[in-house]
Design a protein that fits this description.
It is a single chain. This protein has 166 residues and is mostly helical. Helix content is 70%, strand content 0%. It is built from 6 helices and no strands. The model has no long low-confidence stretch (mean pLDDT 91). The chain has a single domain, classed as dinb family like domain (Four Helix Bundle (Hemerythrin (Met), subunit A)), CATH 1.20.120.
């Protein structure tokens, strides 16, 4: 009896953090995607969204498209089954979208990410991600944390590009 109680408590303690984690991650993604919208909107000159400087090879606009494409693919398609088809090359070659067009794409991504993440069960958070990521089989949790770090890496680059250009 005591062993069964401890087993149930351990199961409870294992499941609860994963349940909270998906909700916490959904909040972080929304927060940081909204920061990306703010950064895009902060460009005074829309042409600067598509400029690169010195050794920086990707424009802020292309970084925003890359984030939209990557998150739509990894979270929307692979986890949320949205049917989004990614064109990674276009993320880095497309030019000239307006701030309004870019922010609309980011805005449309937010509910996809939020709904997909909050629908994940604790078991799914600990399950293997549908494709290899970082060259190996990893859990949903690993991939979602890595993608959030990647979002913030590029968010910082967008902020930097805006500040050095304007």
């Amino acid at each position: 009896m005591v062993t069964q109680i401890f087993s149930e408590i351990n199961l409870f303690l294992t499941i609860i953090p994963f349940a909270m984690l998906s909700s916490i991650l959904a909040n972080f993604y929304e927060r940081d995607l909204r920061k990306l919208i703010d950064e895009v909107n902060a460009f005074q000159n829309e042409d600067d969204l598509w400029k690169t400087l010195g050794s920086v090879k990707n424009s802020a606009g292309n970084l925003a498209l890359h984030l939209v494409g990557g998150l739509n693919h990894f979270i929307g398609t692979l986890l949320g089954h949205t049917g989004y088809i990614r064109n990674r090359d276009l993320e880095f070659s497309a030019k000239g979208f307006s701030k309004k067009e870019l922010t609309a794409q980011i805005e449309a991504l937010i509910p996809i990410v939020r709904e997909t993440l909050t629908d994940l069960t604790p078991q799914e958070m600990n399950a293997e991600f549908p494709v290899k990521f970082d060259g190996a089989a990893n859990t949903h949790t690993y991939v979602l944390v890595q993608l959030l770090a990647h979002l913030n890496y590029h968010l910082g680059q967008v902020n930097y590009l805006r500040r050095i250009q304007e």
